[in-house]
Every structure is written in C-alpha cells, then in structure tokens.
Automatic annotation (TrEMBL):
Residues 1-32 form the signal peptide. GO terms for molecular function: L-gulonolactone oxidase activity. Its EC number is 1.1.3.8. InterPro entries: ALO_C, FAD-bd_PCMH, FAD-bd_PCMH-like_sf, FAD-bd_PCMH_sub1, FAD-bd_PCMH_sub2, FAD-linked_Oxidoreductases_BP, GULLO2-like_C, GULO_Plant. The lineage of its organism: Eukaryota, Viridiplantae, Streptophyta, Embryophyta, Tracheophyta. It is an enzyme of class 1 (oxidoreductase). GO terms for biological process: L-ascorbic acid biosynthetic process. Gene3D superfamilies: 3.30.465.10, 3.30.70.2520, Uridine Diphospho-n-acetylenolpyruvylglucosamine Reductase, domain 2. This is L-gulonolactone oxidase. Residues 64-246 form the FAD-binding PCMH-type domain. Its cofactor is FAD. Pathway: Cofactor biosynthesis; L-ascorbate biosynthesis.
C-alpha cells in the first residue's frame, strides 16, 4: 500500500502531534472543574412533543433519525405506571431513553413517528440502603457514578463495573455492561443484582400496566430474562444490588512486547482480579494491568481519573480531528503511526490519569479505595463553559467521531484469534495504527452468566475504536484490515457482540448464538404480547422479523453490510470488494 510520504513531512507531522499532545496533557492534568456537560439526547420541537433521540455521539450506525410524537419524564414509579398504562391502552409504541444515551445501536428508537420516548432522567433516586444486608436499591435512571457514591456512603462497594461512569443502571441492565474480572460472579453488573422492579404492559384487569417484582428465587426465568433485556420487556423501575464491604485496590501498569501475548492472555486473568490489557499491535506492545484487591486499611488514597474521559479543550479536539482527516485524505499511514506512538507513550507516561493522592502520580503501585479506582468520567460533572471544553465525543464539538467494534471471544480460542491478528499486522505493520490513536485495543475479562442474553462462556472482550468519516461514502485507510478482524471475530470465532456497541453486521444472526434465546423470547411474549416496547431494530436482532443488513451502494463502508460486489465499497475511490488476507472467507473493501 502506498502513501504520500516524505521524511520532512513525517518529521513535521510528528513535531506537530508532540506539541499538541503536550498542551493537551497539561490542560487535562490541571483542568478538572470546567467543561460543558452533554446535552439531553432527546430534543423536541415544542415542549415534550415532536421529538427526536440520538446517542451521545450524535449519530446512529445507519445515520437515521429516530422520532417520536412525545417524550415523558416520570419522577416516581407511580408516574411511570400511569405513563405505560396510558400508552398501552391506545396501543402506542414505547422505548426507554436514558440521561446520556450512550449506546451506539438504535436501542432508544421506537417505530414510526407516533410513538413515545420514556426518559429515566428523573428516576434517579436512591430508594434504600441496607448496610447490614449489604444491599442498595436505586431507581433505574441512577448513573454508575451515583451508584458508586451512594454505596460508599454506607461503607459498601460494587465489585465490578464499566470504566465509564456515565451509564445508568437501566442502561447497564439493558445491554449487559461489564468491567473486567474472572473472579467471583464475573465482571457483569447484572450478575450482582438481586431484585428488579419492572413496569410492563398489562391487561384491562391490570389497569393496562403491571409492576413485576423479579428475583432469582421467586421468578427465575423472568429474572434471567430481565437481567439483560434490551428494553423489550418494559421499563425497569428499581434495581437492588448485592454489594461488598469497601476494599482497596493496588494497581500497576507494565508495558511489554507482545511476543508471548497469545499465551499470557489466556492465563493473566486468573492471576489478577481486575486484570485487563491495552494492546498496541502495530507497535508490538501490550500494557498489562496488574490490579488486585487489598485490605481496606492498606496505606494509600489513590484515584483514577482516566485522561480521555476528562474535559478537553474544543480547539485542541478540532485540531486533532482535522489532522486525522488530513492523514486519511493523504493516505498518510506513517503520520498516523507517528501520532499513535506519541499518544500511547504519553498516556502510559502519565499513568493514564492515576494519582497516588488525588493530585499527582508519584509511582506504582497506586493504592486507593474501590469507589475512587473503578470508574471515571469527569467531563460529565461540570458547569457550562460555552463549549470551550467538553467530552471528546460531544457532537456539538468537531472532535472525536468513530466506529466502535466490541465482542467477546471464548478463552479457549483467544490464542488462535490473537495470532490471526498478528498475522495481519505482519503483512503491514502500519495497518492498525489507527486503533492506537484511540487508546489501543482494550481487552477485558468476562465470565459466563445465567442471564439469557448474557455471556455464554468465560471470554476476553475486545474493544476496537477507530476513525469514522463524516461522509458515509468516504472509505478509511486500512479499512480492509479492520473489516477482516470484525468478520473474523463474528463469523470465524462466533464472537458475541456487546449489545450497546458495534456496527450493524455484528448483529447479523446474533440471536442464534444464545442457547437460552427461546426462553428469553417466551418471557418477552408473556410481558409484552403486542410488542409495544419492541422496535424494528430489536425485532431484527432478536430474529423476530427482518435483518440488520442494509444493502445499498457503499453499505460496507459503515458496516451496514458485508460487501458482495464492488458497489458496496467505493470503486470510484479505488476501494473494491476483495477476499480477506488471513481469513479468506471475509469480504472486505480493499484499496487497489
């Protein structure tokens, strides 16, 4: 593959990125109290009528606009029951939206334009805390940040959770959100839930709405369906969590070459409770997270405020985006790799945002309480500053705009999958530098879950984040390599997708991968026989009606289809449908 490259340009490009990233790091290390928080994902023309919903990135995978006639904002369970009953009585379609709408697929969308969005924005209260029973009951609109803080007030901790605290309890339950661990019940949040209160459509005798109280002992089938529900069973009102006494963690990051990574990935998760990896395949490096539980009286007051989740200056974000767009236009692979090397070194050198005392990093290990170490997202909890700063992906800022492919590969197949990726990198060492511009490949451990739509086996979850063009018909540099990894994961290794991430093709035939799919669909039919909480998207991914694939010119560029002819790529721009290089069954858009 050729690129417009000269030693002078490469030097200038590296100097530019070095200067810009130094300024960025200085800003994010000191800037913690000013930012522009994200706006509400639901926008209405007049009051709460004639509404649209988007995700926090501003664009769904198919770039469609999701509409509804109204949005409702219940503040109590009683109000929620009344809203669901009124809509059920007239056969109105409903979908739940959350405060930040952080799911990439169209999970918040209802069908047509006459439906109803039910936002849990104001269902954000703690119902009760029981320190003796070590349980905490909250409403479904409570964010992970609130949940962590409320537990800490009574000396308790949620053992595992996602690293981004801007997700809600209902959102985590709807998509199977998780952290990283093979210990205990595993890292999925829903496996630490003991009771769910769900409001679903009811009969005339029920008053058109029914409050269901679900537990593992009294309603096991319904409980295991509701633990990862995709929002098709109704609205989760309240959730009770089983917590643990507060503990501390001792964390150490180590960077190594990836020569034996295919072996280490299989065993490392059994050695450290909160282990994960950041793989930098084009650099041939892996960052190992050695992270373990220690006694609560262990000396240390560390905290983790992950740098990419902090407030960032809009001007810097726009400049970085412009530079990457230029690299894409010029097909400047060397420039991307130079920038990726600089960024990964800077993140590692600044300990990714870890501090030993809440202010500065003085060295490893960093020891801190679970509530200060497990999740972050400080760009959310800030005052308005007129968009001078914001979360990096805020759609109002010309900042990050990306695809995200996330899937879990069984541990028994990890070695082979990693070696397949290494084989691709050997063909062109620059091919995955684009992933390293976005932190690298984050890899987290997950375990099998009794939830019907949860993980089927112990596995390693891969998160790949990469450039997305503003124009859906614009191809990407090394697009074929990323598409081959995506197809290899889902079709060669039968990977399970993350329900709240991914492009359309990740969900092609996905329901067949779940052994308890029929049991889940049976509960869905019982709870909502008219499908009022279902949508075209959920019916497609659940195998009820239709398919997620969208066939049209350029569809493969955005993961709406797998190419079967050149028109599905960008033939006028030199991208044609070709077989994969390692996984020959793949069909990818390759530059020729």
């Amino acid at each position: 593959m050729t690129s417009n490259y000269s030693p002078l340009y490469s030097y200038q490009n590296a100097t530019f990125w070095r200067t810009l990233f130094m300024l960025y790091c200085i800003f994010t290390l000191v800037q913690t109290s000013f930012s522009t928080p994200p706006e509400d994902p639901v926008k209405c023309v007049s009051g709460n009528t004639d509404c649209t919903v988007s995700n926090s990135f501003g664009t769904f995978p198919d770039r469609s606009t999701c509409r509804a006639a109204n949005v409702a904002y219940p503040t109590t369970e009683a109000e929620l029951v009344s809203i669901v009953a009124a809509a059920t009585n007239v056969g109105r379609k409903m979908r739940v939206t959350t405060r930040y709408s952080h799911s990439i697929p169209k999970l918040a969308c209802t069908d047509g334009e006459d439906g109803l969005f039910i936002s849990t924005k104001f269902l954000n209260h703690t119902v009760r805390a029981d320190p003796l029973a070590m349980t905490l009951t909250v409403e479904s609109g409570v964010t992970l940040r609130q949940l962590i803080a409320e537990a800490a007030k009574v000396g308790l901790a949620l053992p595992y959770a996602p690293y981004w605290w801007g997700v809600t309890v209902g959102g985590m339950m709807g998509t199977g959100a998780h952290g990283s661990s093979l210990f205990g019940k595993g890292s999925a949040v829903h496996d630490y839930v003991t009771e769910i209160r769900m409001v679903s459509p009811g009969s005339v005798n029920d008053g058109f709405a029914k409050v269901r109280v679900l537990t593992e002992t009294t309603t096991p089938d319904e409980f295991n369906a509701a633990k990862v529900s995709l929002g098709v069973l109704g609205v989760i009102s309240q959730v009770t969590f089983e917590l643990q006494p507060m503990f501390k963690r001792s964390l150490n990051y180590v960077m190594r070459n990836d020569m034996d990574f295919h072996d280490q990935a299989v065993t490392f998760g059994r050695q450290h409770e909160f282990a994960d990896f950041v793989w930098l395949p084009s650099q041939g490096k892996v960052v190992y997270r050695m992270d373990d539980r220690v006694a609560v009286n262990t000396l240390g007051n560390g905290s983790y405020d992950f740098l990419p989740f902090r407030s960032q200056p809009s001007a810097a974000l726009a400049t970085i985006r412009f530079s990457e767009e230029t690299q894409e236009t010029l097909r400047d692979a060397n420039g991307k790799c130079a920038a990726a090397t600089l960024i990964s070194a800077a993140l590692f050198g600044t300990s990714y945002g870890l501090t030993n005392n809440g202010l500065i990093f003085t060295g490893y290990p960093v020891v801190g309480s679970q509530n200060r170490m497990m999740s972050s997202g400080s760009c959310l909890d800030s005052l308005e500053d007129g968009l001078i700063t914001g979360c990096p992906w805020d759609e109002r800022i010309k900042g990050e705009f990306f695809h995200q492919t996330a899937f879990s590969i069984p541990l028994t197949q990890i070695k082979s999958f990693i070696n397949d990726i290494k084989s691709l990198v050997k063909l062109d060492s620059r091919s995955l530098c684009g992933l390293e511009l976005y932190y690298g490949i984050l890899m987290r451990y997950v375990t099998s879950s009794p939830a019907y739509l949860g993980k089927e086996t112990d596995a390693l979850d891969f998160d790949l984040t990469y450039y997305r063009a503003k124009n859906p018909l614009t191809p990407r540099l090394y697009e074929d390599f990323l598409e081959e990894i995506e197809q290899m994961a889902f079709f060669k290794y039968n990977a399970l997708p993350h329900w709240g991430k991914n492009r359309n093709i990740a969900f092609d035939g996905v329901i067949k991968k779940y052994k308890n799919a029929d049991a889940f669909l049976k509960v869905r039919e019982s709870y909502d026989p008219k499908g009022l909480f279902s949508s075209e998207w959920t019916s497609q991914i659940l195998g009820i009606k239709g398919n997620v694939t969208i066939i049209k010119d350029g569809c493969a560029l955005e993961g709406l289809c797998i190419c079967s002819e050149d028109a599905h790529c960008a033939p006028t721009k030199g991208y044609f449908c070709r077989p994969g290089k390692v996984y020959k069954e793949a069909r990818v858009c390759a530059h020729s």
